[in-house]
Amino acid sequence: MPFDPEGRVRESDAERTDLAWNRSGLSLLALGAVIMRGLSKPPFVTRNLALGACILGLGALVWALGAWHARRVRRLGNRPTRMIDLVPVTVGVAIVGFVAFVVAARFPN
Questions:
Q1: For residue 18, which of 37, 70, 91, 107 is within the disulfide window of CB 3.0 to 4.6 Å?
Q2: How far apart are the C-alpha atoms of 91 and 20, rounded to whole Å?
Q3: Do 57 and 16 form a contact (C-beta atoms < 8 A)?
Q4: Is the pLDDT at 1 greater than 50, yes or no?
Q5: What is the tally of structural domains in the chain?
Q6: Nearest-10 crossing angle of helices 46-76, 11-37
Q7: What is the rounded average pLDDT of the residues 21-25?
Q8: Cβ-based neighbours of 50, under 8 Å, separated by 6 or more
Q9: Is the dihedral of CA 19, 24, 27, 28 positive or negative?
């Protein structure tokens, strides 16, 4: 996220970051729904349902993290960003990455 010389986030950059989080969360939600439903007709495969539900959960987490971060940036206003401000987002992204790794390892096909 770009900062001005005093370490504050520019408003237009904060809005673009918010939109990027929304797009990422919504795309994961859509992907999870497609996997759960499957691209073919029934019978439904239990494996697809589990994988789709996991991806749906990740999408909801990403969307919620993005919404939380956007509200926080708006609430803090023009205050310089500190490292502690980024910890929740960093932890959330690490969780999403780890779960995605586990899902990929568990369902390789």
A1: 70
A2: 18
A3: no
A4: no
A5: 1
A6: 170
A7: 82
A8: none
A9: negative
What are the residues whose beta carbons fall under 8 Å from the beta carbon of 31, sequence distance 6 or more? 55, 59
φ and ψ of 9, to 5 deg: -80, 135
pLDDT digits (tens, 9 = 90+) for 56-68: 888 888 888 888 8
| Mean pLDDT, residues 26-41 | 76
Is residue 74 scored above 70 in pLDDT? yes
The answer as to whether 91 is a domain residue is: yes
Structure tokens belonging to residue 27: 């795309």
Asked whether residue 45 is domain-assigned, the answer is yes
Q: For the chain, what is the HEC assignment? A: CCECCCCCECHHHHHHHHHHHHHHHHHHHHHHHHHHHCCCCCCCCHHHHHHHHHHHHHHHHHHHHHHHHHHHHHHHCCCCCCHHHHHHHHHHHHHHHHHHHHHHHHCCC
Give the residue numbers spanning the domain of 92: 11-106
